[in-house]
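Closing statement on the adenosine-5-diphosphoribose sub-project.
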Amino acid sequence: MKTSKIQHVVIFSGAGISAESGLKTFRDSDGLWENYKVDDVATPQAWEKKPELVLEFYNLRRKQVLNAKPNPAHFSIPKLEKKYKVSVITQNVDDLHERAGSKNVLHLHGEILNSRSVETGKTYRLKNAEINLGDLCENGHQLRPDVVWFGEYVPNIVKAIKICESADILIIIGTSLNVYPAADLINDIKSSCKIYLIDPKDVTIKKIANITHIKKSASEGLPKLVEELLKF
Ligand code: APR
């Protein structure tokens, strides 16, 4: 008897998938992120120099995330689970994939709804929207946002590489592929893997074989692609 193996679809998402949920992408806002300079709020040096400014920035972004809702692009992904093994690797720190029903989500750059002890590294789900100076873990150490800042190690990259190695279909959506090591994940897929890129703009991508660029917004392009993939 012939059995066909379930195919593995990997979704690799970036800020563009959440843009239509009202969460601004960083590179579409002229180098400023909600009017903050990235170097002032998203680096370990910024945390050393002005932790209160860093916390203010993430408190603001956290409130935006809590007020945002998943859009049709997020909602279309769990539909694939009827037919495929599905893994989501996201660079986003929001929880919109999870709220849309995706079960298998790996956050490469952390989760804004978590805090992390600066000393032990242990993470905690936040009970309210803010982290302030003086908020401590159970061992008495300051809490920081559980996000990966520019220049920091990306702990989940090893898991992400493993996931990409077994992809049969890779859907890259809403990422400029400017930030490493995330952007290198594309080099870890099999040569037979089919790649779709969904982005209204051109994206420079080194691997050109097997790529179909769907030049549409996430909420238009992804639900249509999901429909197609469920037909075969
Ligand atoms: N639908 C699909 N793609 C979109 C949409 C949309 N509605 N709007 C914008 N985009 C695309 C842009 O054309 C761009 O290519 O989303 C991409 C966003 O790119 P970036 O802002 O660079 O976001 P991302 O690649 O996720 O950034 C990576 O850098 O900002 C830091 O740590 C942060 O995780 C983030 C990382």
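The chain is about 25% helix and 20% strand. With this model delivered, the sub-project is considered complete and its resources will be redirected to Aim 3.
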